[in-house]
Design goal:
353 residues, alpha/beta, eight-stranded parallel barrel, 8 strands, Fructose-bisphosphate aldolase, Aldolase_TIM
Length: 353
């Protein structure tokens, strides 16, 4: 079956005025949060019991079968179990992808580890061969059975020594990926341990870092799209206007109200974003399939008002006899959230993983 990701990327690059929008679900949190990654089994009652990995995988299967996301991002372990062994994506329009590296700033053991507050260092658990076929030294005939798309992340901290090491690791990955026919999309986080950059200068620093990094990368090795924090309309419009060949996407960040999630996608799309990759926002929702359905409504223009989408989502929960985590009035509020992995801000009525 044709993959909607490939079809949409082709149209976006060939017909810039098209309204295609790529929606991705990030179910790779086991590479960051560990046991907490699948989310709490019943956050509504404040229970601390987390879902099992098997339940996490079951949810991934349900979302892939729903077919409303274009990309499902997973760890290499999950990819091996579902993509390679279970053949989940055969006959599906959804593209499997893996987290290709796990820099130290996403090592968040039990919420008590100190790694997230220390300057990011490059590291890669996964190998490209293991992503593509489940073991090292894939044969050419085996490279199609797993994922041929991966997320590579970089955190620039405005430190020449640290950022040089991060870029060297990225260069090494790109060279290997190009040689093996492995595609990637690039995630650029905001600085996680930077004391020499004012907060208001971060958006321009990120945009400039992206442009400078990719200026040295030929088309054959460039990322298929970007995943960056959403800093607001102006920084997004600036980056989108610079290079029409860059397909720019946003990351969701920490879970907040439903309005936060819906409004961010709606506004980012108006500002030129063509991709949204949400992880915690989806995983911590009352009903993931309904939440994704409403993200799709907004992404495709079937709903054009984030508040209307929140009301519709609450209506869907009512029909399913699912009690929302907070009242409709509370869920229509905008809260201050963070985009980094280590954020634990807890908006009213919501419990984060």
């Amino acid at each position: 079956m044709k993959k909607t990701l490939d079809e949409k990327l082709s149209r976006i690059l060939g017909e810039p005025a098209c309204q295609d929008f790529i929606l991705a679900d990030a179910k790779d949190a086991d590479m960051a949060f560990g046991i907490a990654a699948p989310g709490r089994r019943n956050p509504q009652n404040g229970q601390t019991e987390y879902r099992s990995l098997a339940e996490f995988h079951e949810t991934i299967c349900e979302i892939v079968e729903q077919g409303l996301v274009d990309v499902m991002l997973m760890s290499v372990n999950t990819n091996a179990r579902l993509t390679i062994n279970k053949r989940l994506f055969e006959g599906s329009s959804v593209t499997p992808a893996i987290r290709a590296n796990d820099t130290t700033d996403i090592w968040l053991a039990g919420g008590v580890g100190a790694y997230g507050s220390q300057p990011s260092l490059p590291f890669r658990s996964a190998t490209i061969d293991q992503a593509m076929c489940g073991h090292e030294n894939c044969t050419p005939d085996e490279r199609h059975i797993g994922a041929d798309l991966g997320l590579y992340s970089i955190t620039f901290n405005n430190d020449a020594t640290l950022d040089r090491a991060a870029l060297a690791a990225y260069r090494e990955f790109r060279i290997e990926a190009e040689a093996k026919g492995f595609r990637h999309f690039l995630e650029v986080f905001a600085p996680n341990a930077c004391e020499n950059l004012a907060v208001e200068d971060v958006p321009r620093f990120i945009n400039d870092s992206i442009v400078r990094t990719l200026a040295g990368v030929p088309p054959s090795s460039r990322p298929k799209f970007l995943k960056i924090p959403y800093f607001g309309p102006a920084p997004m419009e600036e980056l989108v206007a610079y290079d029409s060949s860059l397909v720019v996407g946003i990351l969701g960040g920490s879970a907040g109200t439903t309005f936060d999630a819906f409004h961010q996608l709606w506004e980012a799309k108006k500002s030129g974003a063509r991709v949204a990759l949400y992880g915690r926002m989806i995983n911590n929702s009352e009903h993931q399939l309904s939440f994704i359905e409403h993200l799709r409504y907004l992404a495709d223009g079937q709903l054009n008002d984030p508040a209307e989408a929140v009301r519709s989502y609450h209506g869907a929960l009512h029909k399913l006899d699912i009690e929302p985590f907070c009242s409709l009035e509370e869920d229509l509020q905008s809260t201050k959230r963070c985009s980094d992995y280590s954020s634990k801000k807890k908006p009213s009525g919501r419990i984060l993983a």
